[in-house]
Amino acid sequence: MVEDFTRKRILGDISVFEARNLQLIHDNLLLHKLRNRRECDF
């Protein structure tokens, strides 16, 4: 039972870590698109 809990906990931490990374990647791409769009306007 303890092993199952530990395994789930580790997997949970990994998925949170991946979610944060995906959010950072998404935000960076969005920022990059907005900057390019702004530079094209000038």
Features:
42 residues, 1 helix, mainly alpha
Give a verbal description of the structure.
This protein has 42 residues and is an all-alpha fold. Helices cover 95% and strands 0% of the residues. It has one helix and no strands. The chain has one helix at residues 2-41. The mean pLDDT is 81.
State the assembly state of the protein chains.
single chain
Proportion of β residues?
Answer: under 5%
Low-confidence stretches: none
Task: Give the helix/strand class.
Answer: mainly alpha
Q: Main beta sheet, described? A: none
The number of helical elements comes to 1
Distance between the termini: 62 Å
SSE pattern, N- to C-terminal: H
Short description, anyone?
With 42 residues, the protein is mainly α.
SSE topology sketch:
Layout: H1 2-41
